[in-house]
Specification:
3 strands, mainly alpha, 436 residues, 36% helix
C-alpha cells in the first residue's frame, strides 16, 4: 500500500510541532526584526537568509524533494505560510499586529469596560511578562512599576484616613489583603485571564505570557545571599541577608516595626537586593508574581491613557469594593496589659472588670458576661465560659473599639486634587499604638 504524503494537502491539520519542515535548517537560519509600531513591515524586509534579503516565493515542500544537508538553504524551499509561521515562532512574544485580531483581547477589553482611548495593543503589552520577553519595549515592567506605586498610594490613604488609629502591623496586613500577590492572582482569575503553557510569537496575545517555575513555591534569591532563606523561615525569622537594609550581614538582628516601615516594601516584607531578574536567559517566575505584575500593569495603563480620575475609579471598582473585615486581623498577646497602658497614656482611669450577668455557674456550661469600665465609662464587653475568658474578651473588645475608630466623613488626600476639588481639611493623625 502506497503511503500518502499528508503535508501536501492537509498541512493545516497537522500541528506545527509535528510537521517535518519545522526541523529543517531553514528555521535555524531565520531571524526576525521587531518593530514598535502596530503596522507589520513587509516580509522581505523582516526576514533575512544567510545575511542577504531575498524575495520568497511559494513552493510546495516535499520531504523527498528537499535540499540536501550540504546544499545552501534558500527561502524558495518553503511556502509563504510556513515562512510566516517560522517568523512568529522566532519571536519571544506575540507581535503587536496580532492584538487587533485576538478575540480574547477584545473580550477582556470589553469585560473591563475600557474605552477606546486605551488601545488594545497596550492591553496586549500588559499581558507580556519580563520572563517571556526581556525587551523592556515589549513587556509590562514599566507599566507594572507605575501601577504598583498607584495601588500602594491609593490603598494606604484609604486605610489610614478611614482607620487613623490602626497599628502598623494591621496596616501591613490590610495592604496585603487589598493589593497583595494572592489577591491580585484571584483578580486575574476573576477577569478570565489564562496563563500560557509556553510563551512565543505564535501564541494568542490574549493569554498571560510568562515562564513559570518548576514549583510554585520555589523562590529565586540574590546570589549575594550567603544564607539559605528557607532555613531562616523555618526558625520563624526571615533572613535579611541580601536585603536592601543597613547591616544586612547581621543575621540575628530583630526586625522592628519602625525599620519595616522605612526599609521594607508596602506589605512589610523584605526587599531583596539587586538580582539578575528577567534579563537572565531562561529566567522564570511564579504564577502569583506574574499575575500581580499583570494587574499592576493594567492600573498603570489606565493611568497613562485615561488619567488620574479614571485610574481612581478603576481602583474603587476592582480593589476597594472588596469587603475586608479588619477587626479579624488583630492579635493581642496580653490584651489586659495593653488596655491598662492605653488608659494610662490617654489619661483615663485604670480599667476595672465587672460582672454584668451570668447564668449556670454551677452547671456544665456556664456563661459569664463581663464589662471593662474606666470610671463610669464602659470600654468593652465580652462573654465566656469562665470569668477569665470573659475578662480577656472584654479587654479585646475595648482595644478594638479604640483602634477601629473611624470618622463619620472620610476624605482622602487624592480627592483634593484637581481644579474644581474642595479644599483639603486635615484628618486625625493618631500618635500610634501602645508600646509595651
Amino acid at each position: 500500500m502506497k503511503a500518502l504524503r499528508l503535508l501536501k494537502w492537509s498541512g493545516s491539520v497537522l500541528s506545527p510541532r509535528t510537521r517535518p519542515c519545522v526541523f529543517h535548517p531553514f528555521y535555524k537560519s531565520l531571524t526576525t526584526v521587531r518593530f514598535l509600531s502596530a503596522a507589520s513591515p513587509p516580509l522581505q524586509q523582516a526576514v533575512q537568509y544567510q545575511g542577504q534579503d531575498q524575495d520568497p516565493e511559494e513552493h510546495p515542500w516535499d520531504s523527498s524533494q528537499g535540499p540536501e544537508d550540504n546544499e545552501p538553504v534558500t527561502p524558495e524551499d518553503m511556502p509563504k505560510s510556513l515562512q510566516q509561521e517560522a517568523r512568529l515562532r522566532a519571536l519571544p512574544s506575540p507581535p503587536i499586529s496580532a492584538a487587533k485580531s485576538s478575540a480574547k483581547l477584545a473580550a477582556l477589553h470589553a469585560r473591563l469596560s475600557f474605552s477606546p482611548r486605551l488601545p488594545i495593543e497596550t492591553l496586549a503589552r500588559c499581558l507580556v511578562d519580563a520572563t517571556a520577553d526581556p525587551n523592556p519595549d515589549f513587556n509590562n515592567t514599566s507599566l507594572a512599576i507605575l501601577g504598583r506605586d498607584l495601588y500602594g498610594y491609593y490603598t494606604s490613604e484609604a486605610i489610614l484616613c478611614r482607620y487613623p488609629r490602626l497599628p502598623t502591623a494591621v496596616v501591613f496586613a490590610a495592604m496585603s489583603a487589598y493589593v497583595g500577590p494572592k489577591t491580585l492572582t484571584q483578580i486575574t482569575k476573576e477577569w478570565g485571564v489564562e496563563l500560557v503553557a509556553e510563551p512565543g510569537g505564535e501564541v494568542d496575545p490574549g493569554y498571560l505570557q510568562c515562564r513559570r517555575e518548576d514549583s510554585m513555591f520555589k523562590r529565586k534569591y540574590s546570589p549575594t545571599s550567603d544564607e539559605d532563606p528557607t532555613a531562616a523561615l523555618e526558625k520563624g525569622q526571615p533572613s535579611i541577608a541580601g536585603a536592601n537594609r543597613p547591616n544586612a550581614d547581621q543575621k540575628t538582628w530583630r526586625r522592628g516595626v519602625s525599620s519595616m516601615t522605612v526599609y521594607d516594601n508596602e506589605f512589610g516584607d523584605l526587599v531583596k537586593g539587586s538580582s539578575p531578574g528577567p534579563k537572565v536567559k531562561d529566567a522564570t517566575t511564579t504564577i502569583e508574581d506574574a499575575c500581580a505584575r499583570f494587574v499592576q500593569a493594567i492600573m498603570g495603563a489606565v493611568y497613562l491613557h485615561r488619567g488620574k480620575h479614571a485610574a481612581k475609579m478603576f481602583f474603587k471598582e476592582h480593589i476597594l469594593s472588596r469587603h475586608l473585615d479588619i477587626g479579624r486581623m488583630f492579635e493581642f498577646k496580653q490584651p489586659t496589659r495593653d488596655l491598662s497602658r492605653l488608659c494610662a497614656r490617654e489619661g483615663f482611669e485604670s480599667p476595672v472588670a465587672r460582672i454584668l450577668s451570668e447564668t449556670g455557674r454551677l452547671s456544665r456550661h456556664p456563661v459569664f458576661i463581663v464589662g471593662v469600665f474606666a470610671g463610669r465609662e464602659k470600654l468593652g464587653e465580652g462573654a465566656g465560659s469562665s470569668l477569665n475568658e470573659a475578662r480577656i474578651r472584654a479587654a479585646v473588645g475595648a482595644l478594638k473599639g479604640w483602634y477601629l475608630y473611624s470618622p463619620l466623613e472620610v476624605r482622602v488626600p487624592s480627592d483634593a486634587e484637581g481644579a474644581n476639588a474642595k479644599p483639603w481639611k486635615p484628618v486625625l493623625v493618631d500618635i500610634g499604638e501602645v508600646i509595651v
